[in-house]
From TrEMBL:
This is HIT domain-containing protein. It comes from Naasia lichenicola. InterPro entries: AP-4-A_phosphorylase, FHIT, HIT-like, HIT-like_sf. Residues 1-35 are annotated as: Disordered. It comes from the Bacteria. PANTHER family: AP-4-A PHOSPHORYLASE (PTHR42997:SF1), HIT FAMILY HYDROLASE (PTHR42997). The lineage of its organism: Bacteria, Bacillati, Actinomycetota, Actinomycetes, Micrococcales. Substrate binds at residues 99, 171.
Length: 209
């Protein structure tokens, strides 16, 4: 699974995406000259969403580079505005933000402020607050998004799939009975019906004071 809320880092977010993508590091022939064809000739129905294409992320994905402490998106996010960093709640030792590369709408990450990699390196206060914020995240997502279930967990270490392995973060991924469709299977694409800013505003507004 992977990471990062609003921080504009490549590193953010790709645990799962990476495995979806090209585990072999190959680029499926996209490296050569590209021919462009009018979309009018292609199947598909235009909609209201814009697509953010991020081929630059392939450099990160393929190199396995990890951000330095100075570049860490989870360290940088709290220095930004809630809107810019997609933060929904700031606690004492930990905070909650939207994953910039969500598996599902409302995919939240619970992070300690401290740049610490492993769960067993976190302090008792950090662990306690991460746990309580995770519970609150579940309640808020049930209320705002009528969630049917959740995937919750941490990837510890690069080998375990952590996109930002150097900064601990717990994933809270809402699930719905109808959220699985053929897109991720045949196209490596996830259908996300809500824009991140709208989700952030709704979750932040519903978060108990
Ligand atoms: Zn950090």
């Amino acid at each position: 699974m992977s990471d990062v809320g609003g921080a504009p880092s490549d590193g953010a977010g790709s645990d799962g995406a990476r495995s979806d993508v090209h585990a072999s590091g190959e680029t499926d022939g996209f490296t050569g000259p590209v021919s462009v064809e009018s979309s009018l000739n292609l199947p598909g129905v235009p909609d209201a969403f814009q697509r953010l294409w991020t081929p630059h992320r392939m450099v990160y994905i393929q190199s396995g580079a990890q951000p330095s402490d100075e570049d860490c998106p989870f360290c940088r996010a709290p220095e930004m505005s809630d809107e810019d960093a997609l933060i929904v709640h700031r606690g004492t030792h930990a905070y909650v933000l939207l994953n910039l590369f969500p598996y599902n709408s409302g995919h939240l990450l619970v992070c300690p402020y401290r740049h610490v990699a492993l769960y067993d390196d976190a302090t008792a206060e950090e662990i306690d607050e991460i746990a309580r914020l995770t519970q609150t995240a579940m309640r808020v997502l049930r209320e705002t998004a009528k969630t049917d279930g959740f995937n919750i967990g941490m990837n510890q270490g690069r080998i375990a799939g952590a996109g930002i392995a150097s900064h601990l973060h717990q994933h809270v991924v809402p699930r719905w009975a109808t959220d699985a469709n053929f897109f991720p299977i045949i196209a490596g694409t996830k259908a996300l019906p809500q824009l991140l800013g709208d989700v952030r505003a709704a979750v932040a507004a519903a978060w108990p004071a």
